[in-house]
DNA sequence: GTGAAAGCGCTAACAT
DNA sequence: ATGTTAGCGCTTTCAC
């Protein structure tokens, strides 16, 4: 029906009775263009009338810029990425560029290389640790800008990090303030950068509080509710179980809560539980979880700015420090 | 360092000592190309050696195809979209096309129109009800294919729907089987198509079970945990409260559980609760939620196929019927 | 103040 | 079995 063949710059120019170069310059707000107001109006009217939209491919070909950036995440089901995406999308929209968010498919890393090398996307925001060193190297080889978010990636020098160590420390400090001394940690995956930093923060804060880290009180190896549940069972089975647990992420905390419940262990009466990342779910669990809020959306935003080359950091690591402890019902004073 | 200026078809042709058209046809596996194996090998070797990647913009300009499709969702934080995205991404990857997933920003609907009209994306998968009728009309006006997923959108004739009515009916039937007669419904937003269909299914199933729908037992107007909590409080405050509640979605169910807990009402002993969409969270709540599994990923996949024009449905509504009741701990026989 | 012309990198119809 | 050619629709330098 409305299949009127595509309108081009030439059509607009013809209708406005000017050259297409003039139309182009009007569209792009060329400063150096001197034009009579009435001519400009005629051009704008023609654009309106024909419902003209510049062809993205032609423009990209000419300018060698696609106005598109990529954001790679491991899994849309993990709510922390929703926040990062939100911030990145916002920054992209503000620059009138397009953000292409996708999950990393470990089977076909060459897809991402092709995207960069073909110019389809101009730069990449890396929020996934699911890429092989080989794939990273291939991406780097394209020469396009790459920024990692929420994690350190070997070979990628620009990164936006949260202060994961401080997040752990805030929780440990909160727990020691409540009188806890046997504070356990359900850690994330061994190969995860964030998990390692959270573990470091946990250990450091214990020492800072005059406590000695006990290896027996560190369990777990994953970011899922299954790993969290298993680690919790392990900890509760200890001869001398912890009175408080810092869980590395919310998913694992959900599992930990569930495991405690099944064992008849009450939270927080018998054991306090706290975790990192204040996603909405945390407030709705039973009991509502004490968490640490991290500036995830802001990190997404900063990552995009770094891609645009608009950040001040000029290639250095940026650690966002706006971490904040949110105390809810899952932590209480030691009995 | 590796900033060697971009490699073009011409460079490859020169190195392989053939014409660039030959290289192009080799790359695109042109059937009608007759070529000596050794020549083809020379071309492939040159491509390897120069690490050549075809320029996406030039190709798009020439073929008038971008190989990119858009998927519009209302919110990445809602886990049901993670499933839809997963299916859509998979279908896109299988066709070697790119999927651009983004959230609908009600403030700037013209962004999506531009994307379609500029040829940046070839078609749109609509999983959001956040677009105005006006915006939809503008999108339709581009003449590009549009398919809606998980909802009916006025003006969009191709759609992939779940059987929301049946989902409600499965729950109601489960509850009546357990002996419940006062079965309430915490409904979704009034302007939501899925919410309306779930309400219809609820009413129909009550009648089919010989029960008379009681308007007082329908509360709520939203898909958030806040609206769910408020509706639950309202229902529990009735002179004769329900013994079972069908909540329209998981988020509202989380709120409903939380409200019941705060009021000292036990689930399922005092009131049974069930909801629609079996996302992983449902199994990890306390108590684990009885839900209905819907083929969300499959719907995303089918939506993409419809965009590609590969579906059998040829423009008709498709209702997926693979809904399945998952009974967990939040429903039990009436006391 | 406006127009002419070249060319971005590719594909496809048509030579040879 | 391979080469020639003509654009796709746009931006930009330069000319008038």
In short:
The structure is a homodimer of 335-residue chains. The first copy, chain A, has 335 residues and is of the alpha/beta class.
Structural features, described:
- Two copies of one chain form a homodimer.
- Chain A has 335 residues and is α/β, with parallel strands linked by helices.
- The first copy, chain A, has three domains: 9-54, 434 Repressor (Amino-terminal Domain); 66-162 and 297-319, Rossmann fold (3-Layer(aba) Sandwich); 164-293, Response regulator (Rossmann fold, 3-Layer(aba) Sandwich), CATH 3.40.50.
- Helices cover 43% and strands 15% of the residues of chain A.
- In chain A, strand 3, helix 7 (133-141) and strand 4 (146-149) form a beta-alpha-beta unit.
- The model of chain A has no long low-confidence stretch (mean pLDDT 93).
- Chains A and B meet through helix 4, helix 5, strand 2, helix 6 and helix 11 of A and helix 4, helix 5, strand 2, helix 6 and helix 11 of B.
Shape of chain A: elongated
Q: Rg of chain A, please?
A: 26 Å
Distance between the termini of chain A: 74 Å
Low-confidence stretches of chain A: none
Tell me how many strands of chain A there are: 12
User: Count of DSSP helices of chain A?
Assistant: 13
| Strand order, sheet with most strands of chain A | 2-1-3-4-5-11
CATH C-level name of the largest domain in chain A: Alpha Beta
Largest sheet of chain A: 6 strands, parallel
Largest interface: chains, residues each? A-B, 55 and 56 residues
Oligomer class: homodimer
């Amino acid at each position: 029906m409305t299949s009127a063949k595509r309108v081009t710059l030439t059509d607009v120019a013809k209708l406005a009775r000017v050259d297409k170069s003039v139309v182009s310059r009007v569209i792009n707000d060329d400063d150096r263009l001197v034009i009579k107001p009435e001519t400009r109006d005629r051009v704008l009217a023609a654009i309106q009338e024909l419902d003209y939209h510049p062809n993205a491919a032609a423009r990209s070909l000419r300018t060698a810029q696609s106005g598109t950036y990529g954001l790679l995440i491991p899994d849309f089901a993990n709510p922390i990425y929703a926040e990062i995406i939100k911030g990145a999308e916002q920054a992209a929209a503000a620059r009138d560029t397009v953000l292409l968010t996708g999950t990393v498919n470990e089977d076909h890393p060459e897809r991402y290389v092709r995207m960069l090398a073909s110019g389809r996307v101009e730069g990449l925001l890396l929020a996934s640790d699911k890429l092989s060193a080989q794939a990273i190297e291939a991406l780097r080889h394209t020469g396009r800008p790459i920024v990692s978010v929420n994690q350190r990636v070997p070979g990628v020098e620009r990164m936006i990090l949260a202060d994961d160590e401080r997040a752990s420390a805030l929780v440990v400090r909160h727990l020691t303030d409540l009188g806890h001394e046997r504070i356990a940690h359900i850690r994330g995956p061994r190969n995860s950068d964030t998990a390692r930093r959270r573990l470091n923060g946990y250990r450091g804060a214990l020492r800072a509080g005059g406590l000695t880290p006990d290896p027996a009180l560190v369990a777990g190896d994953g970011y899922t509710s299954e790993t969290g549940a298993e680690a919790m069972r392990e900890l509760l089975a200890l001869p001398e179980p912890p009175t408080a647990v810092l869980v590395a992420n919310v998913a694992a905390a959900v599992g930990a809560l569930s495991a405690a419940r099944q064992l008849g262990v009450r939270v927080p009466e018998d054991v306090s539980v706290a975790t990192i990342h204040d996603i909405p779910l945390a407030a709705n669990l039973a009991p509502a979880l004490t968490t640490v809020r991290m500036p995830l959306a802001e990190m997404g935003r900063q990552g995009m700015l770094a891609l645009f080359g608009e950040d001040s950091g000029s290639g250095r690591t940026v650690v966002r420090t706006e971490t904040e402890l949110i105390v809810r019902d899952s932590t209480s004073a030691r009995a």
